[in-house]
Specification:
Layout: H1 11-32, H2 44-59, H3 67-91, H4 95-119, H5 121-130, H6 136-168, H7 175-187, H8 194-222, H9 225-246, H10 251-263, H11 268-273, H12 279-284, H13 288-298, H14 305-332, H15 342-362, H16 367-381, H17 390-402, H18 410-424, H19 430-446, H20 453-467, H21 469-497, H22 528-544, E1 558-565, E2 568-575, H23 576-584, E3 590-592, H24 593-600, H25 604-615, E4 622-625, E5 636-639, E6 649-651, H26 663-685, E7 687-689, H27 690-700, H28 708-720, E8 724-726, E9 733-736
Parallel strand pairs: 2-6
Antiparallel strand pairs: 1-2, 3-5, 4-5, 7-9, 8-9
């Protein structure tokens, strides 16, 4: 049984009677009728009928295969509808009405494109693929792009920008409308953002710039700096939210950059320096919220924080220098210039605490502001007034803390030392501080005035962390001496108990010469009772350490002297020299200054401060004739029979025979350090130019900052001693001589 051939469908019959009439015309009517969302446009049976017709027309044998013709008519159908129905409707509209109509027409086009693709699916699968043609969806988009988008894009963009400007002015606008138009611009890029960027984003950026240029000109005249910055921050926040709501995410950085350039970069200097409300005024009035906002905003622009940090540095320097000038004014007003000025040091510590807090909290610890703080305090702490340097004042303040003069608890001591070390880190003369600190530490330790060994060790650890082992090696050696000496004291004390020659309660502290400061050692005539004790210790020490030489330092020792005045007994806490002098008056002997000088074998420079402490101080245990506050060579002295005090135990202070530090010793140390650095560098480099050598030396010297002339003199000295030579061909270059 044979079947007949399938019925041939002609092009016109299939197109006019089936596809156009039953599908396309109905589709256009439904689109033009404004159908409701969710309406079912074609029943499955209807859709399948149209699909089948297309399928049959594309699978007939030539010459009745209508694939090419159907592909062509698919495009013509879309183009015809866009030209007949869409373009005239859009041409009638303006501004937001144009956007509303475009949104409606674009949504319809998407629906039409979808259904035509469904009807002609077979074309997409085979004909389009085989002939490498644009897909039906792409072809539909291209028709919309060419016929509609190209004509209306300029007006649409203008309408969108107008709506955005209205929103910027505070009006409530239809964001969804703008968003749908943005999506159209994105789609017209056919897989890229080229159309969006060129046709909408470019004009948007230009419009944004112009809008904020006008706003900036208004705000800068009418608003204070804080008010302006509040508006600027709000504008930036609004623009960011606008991108999230209806623009492409890629626009965010570009829009914000335009805003930052217009409302921040263009007027940064004006805002920072604005009279009555600029950065300096905010700092002076502690306006941390406003400063934090200023920091946040100027951090957004390239190098925006540099001028702000410069103002902060200059402001802190100015405040700090006021403290320095206040000290100068006190001295000019007649206040005694001493190395102990705790109020001045405390004022600097308080100032540093305050602005360290500002840098950390307000400026997020940003490196530029850390540097500004450092530069300001380097200037402040190295500006000395009066006879005593800030290094000396700081060291003396540490001395007060560690002697508990400041009456702080353990936690407060630790905190105070931390703060002083922070201030110390800005000193250029750290070696001078070290010299003074070592002298003061020695007095604390030898006079047993130190708060605690733990506090001393803590301070040394802080200095070590700041400046390294070399800086603290000597003062660590001093503490080590005392630790070793404690064992020696105990051992000697046991020996003394069994020795009849020792009539006194006697102990000795042995110090290592290299660790401790050097002291004047007056060769005083010591009483026999003390001499016998010293001899016992000398013999005992020599038997244990035969190669070590002992030198007695009478100016460092201390003694407790039992004294009786008017049948009342007192314990006088004095230095060894004071004890020797008091012993001379054991009885009712009277001496002239010259006689006493001969009896004790002391220089005038030592005897004067010694007798001043005993006869002119608070506790006048020796009577001076004639009375007065100064010791003269014509004075005479004897025990003060009228002395009386409510206290039984009395400490009699004596002015130090030593300066707090030796500048000469510091300079000698610096000379050696510079020369060592030069030799070290030249040994490694062999040949180096003058400026390069000076730069490297300055880089290596952490404890002080010498002038280039000082380094030059040391280089000349090394040339004279044949460590270096000048290059014969280049006089500005040095060669190392091995």
């Amino acid at each position: 049984m044979s079947h007949g051939s399938p019925r041939i469908i002609t092009l016109e019959e299939g197109w006019d009677n089936e596809i156009k009439k039953k599908a396309i015309d109905r589709l256009e009517v439904m689109l033009d009728g404004g159908m409701k969302k969710g309406t079912q446009m074609f029943l499955p049976r209807e859709y399948v009928e149209t699909y089948t017709t297309c399928y049959n027309m594309c699978t007939q044998r030539n010459p009745y295969n209508w694939s090419r013709e159907l592909y062509s008519r698919h495009g013509e159908t879309i183009a015809s509808y866009l030209t007949r129905a869409v373009l005239p409707a859009l041409r009638e509209k303006r501004d937001s009405q144009l956007l509303v109509e475009l949104k409606y027409r674009w949504e319809n086009h998407v629906i039409m494109n979808k259904w035509l693709k469904k009807f002609f699916t077979y074309l997409d699968r085979y004909y389009v693929k085989h002939n490498t043609l644009p897909t039906l969806s792409l072809a539909g988009l291209r028709h919309f792009q060419t016929l509609v988008y190209e004509e209306v894009r300029g007006d649409v963009c203008s309408a969108m920008l107008h709506i955005i400007d209205r929103e910027r002015e505070g009006e409530i606008v239809d964001r969804d409308l703008v968003k749908s138009c943005v999506e159209l611009f994105e789609t017209m890029g056919m897989g890229t953002l080229d159309a969006y960027a060129a046709d909408f984003e470019g004009p948007l950026l230009q419009n944004t710039r112009e809008y904020y240029r006008i706003r900036r000109q208004e705000w800068i005249v009418s608003d204070s700096t804080p008010e302006y910055l509040v508006k600027a921050e709000r504008a930036l926040g609004d623009e960011k939210a606008r991108v999230v709501d209806y623009l492409n995410p890629s626009s965010e950085a570009k829009i914000l950059k335009v805003c930052e350039e217009e409302i921040l970069e263009e007027v940064e200097t004006i805002l920072l320096d604005k009279e009555g409300s600029g950065c300096r005024v905010l700092l002076a009035n502690n306006k941390s919220d406003d400063l934090r906002r200023m920091f946040r905003l100027f951090a957004r622009i390239e190098n925006g924080l540099v001028p702000m940090a410069a103002i902060v540095r200059e402001f802190i320097s100015g405040i700090g220098n006021e403290h320095v000038l206040a000290r100068q004014a006190r001295l000019d007003a007649g206040e005694k210039d001493r190395n102990d000025d705790p109020e001045f040091v405390k004022s600097l510590l308080k100032l540093h605490d305050k602005y360290l807090g500002v840098v950390k909290d307000t400026f997020d610890g940003h490196s530029l502001f850390q540097r500004a703080l450092k530069d300001a305090f380097v200037e402040i702490t190295n500006r000395n007034v009066g006879a005593h340097t800030n290094a000396e004042l700081m060291s003396t303040y540490c001395d007060r803390v560690l002697k508990s003069v400041e009456k702080l608890n353990e936690e407060e001591v630790e905190e105070s030392l931390d703060r002083v070390v922070q201030l110390f880190s800005y000193l250029t003369d750290k070696d001078l501080f070290a010299e003074i600190y070592r002298n003061q530490l020695a007095k604390r330790l030898l006079n047993q005035r130190s708060l605690s060994s733990d506090a001393e060790k803590s301070m040394i650890a802080k200095l070590k962390m700041q400046c390294g082992t070399h800086f603290t090696s000597k003062i660590e050696g001093m503490l080590a001496d005392l630790a070793v000496g404690s064992d020696q004291k105990n051992e000697f004390a046991e020996k003394v108990k069994r020795n009849d020659k020792v009539k006194l309660d006697f102990s000795v502290q042995v110090l290592t010469t290299g660790f401790w400061p050097t002291y004047k050692s007056p060769d005083v005539t010591v009483p026999a009772e003390m001499t016998s004790c010293m001899d016992v210790f000398q013999n005992w020490h020599d038997s244990k350490h035969a190669k070590r030489k002992l030198t007695w330092q009478y100016s460092l020792g201390n003694a407790s002297v039992r004294a009786t005045f008017n049948k009342k007994t007192y314990d006088l806490q004095v230095s060894t020299l004071q004890a020797v002098a008091l012993n001379a008056f054991n009885g009712d002997d009277k001496y002239t200054f010259t006689e006493l000088q001969m009896k004790l074998n002391l220089d005038e420079s030592v005897l004067k401060p010694l007798m001043h402490s005993l006869s002119c101080g608070k506790h006048k245990v020796i009577a001076k004739d004639p009375p007065g506050d100064k010791i003269k060579k014509t004075d005479s002295f004897q025990s003060n029979s009228k002395f009386s005090s409510n206290m039984r135990k009395i400490r009699i202070q004596m002015a130090s025979l030593e300066a707090s530090h030796s500048l000469k010793r510091v300079e000698e140390e610096r000379t050696n350090t510079i020369e060592a650095a030069v030799v070290r560098i030249m040994k490694a480099r062999k040949t180096l130019g003058h400026q390069a050598l000076i730069a490297e030396v300055l880089q290596q010297l952490a404890l002080f900052s010498p002038k280039p002339q000082s380094i030059k003199r040391r280089i000349e000295a090394l040339i004279d001693r044949e460590y270096l030579e000048r290059d014969r061909d280049s006089p500005g270059t040095y060669n190392y001589l091995a």
